[in-house]
Specification:
homodimer, 133 residues, mainly alpha, Arc Repressor Mutant, subunit A, two-stranded antiparallel ribbon, DNA-binding, DNA-binding (chains A, B), transcription (chains A, B), transcription regulation (chains A, B)
Amino acid sequence: MFEIIRDIGAITRQIQNVSNAEFRKLGLANNAFIYVIRTYEQPGMFLGELADSVQIDRTTAFRTVQKLVQSGYLELQHDAHDKRLRRVFVTPKGAAIYPELHAFEQQCSDRLVSQLTGKQQAELKLLLSKLVY
Amino acid sequence: MFEIIRDIGAITRQIQNVSNAEFRKLGLANNAFIYVIRTYEQPGMFLGELADSVQIDRTTAFRTVQKLVQSGYLELQHDAHDKRLRRVFVTPKGAAIYPELHAFEQQCSDRLVSQLTGKQQAELKLLLSKLVY
DNA sequence: ATCTATTCATTGCATATGCAATGAATACTC
DNA sequence: GAGTATTCATTGCATATGCAATGAATAGAT
């Protein structure tokens, strides 16, 4: 069953490459676009929470978010009750590019599963959601 | 269907993290263990071929292989007919650790699919093999 | 309430990464 | 077979990455 690990690893790296190439022009290479997408969809996560949700090292995520704040896509707010937390939100600039980012993600996905029937696609999605890591 | 991309991305990064932590003691962090596994199983690939097979940037792969040659896990040979090519092989030292590397990979996979029935596991493997990238 | 253990964000530092460019060898065209 | 286009390995360079450590804030225990 180790082929599963190998396959998803190769696919992930490939998609990462094309995505980074696609979004470099927006200053969103190095997986930065992922943070904008996730933050748009789930605003108010704190930094570590966001990092964990995409399984990226917290310090790397921290620095990427800093850059995205600098470039105006994201903003940070202190939590009202827990002074340790810094919650992440998209700015209008970040919200404005979300459709483009998500459309590309969608397009990559569609291409990826283009050899599967609709039923198989649903089955794959279900099986993947059951993986434990 | 974009959940597919997100799921496999998160899983891949997670597995990468635990694998690197596991093999750091052997000097095989930063995905280096992948090259030993692949080279053991398919000896004689040239550098770019090996890089492409795991979807890692060729220059990164090149440098990782250099390190593995330095540390004695891999060796390079010039191709007899095409002077551009450098073919990769495992050394006895590389061959000696293959079982450990592969066992860990196996163990990660088993854990990953532990919530699936045998039939579902086979189905997942089949579906993944049909993905196009 | 004090003491201890966790959980955050953040920084330092050594190293890895990857785009762009180079030169050498081979393939392809006419 | 000269000329052009590809395909290699390799290097330079700027940047990203991630482990380890820090200090501040909170949670949990006694």
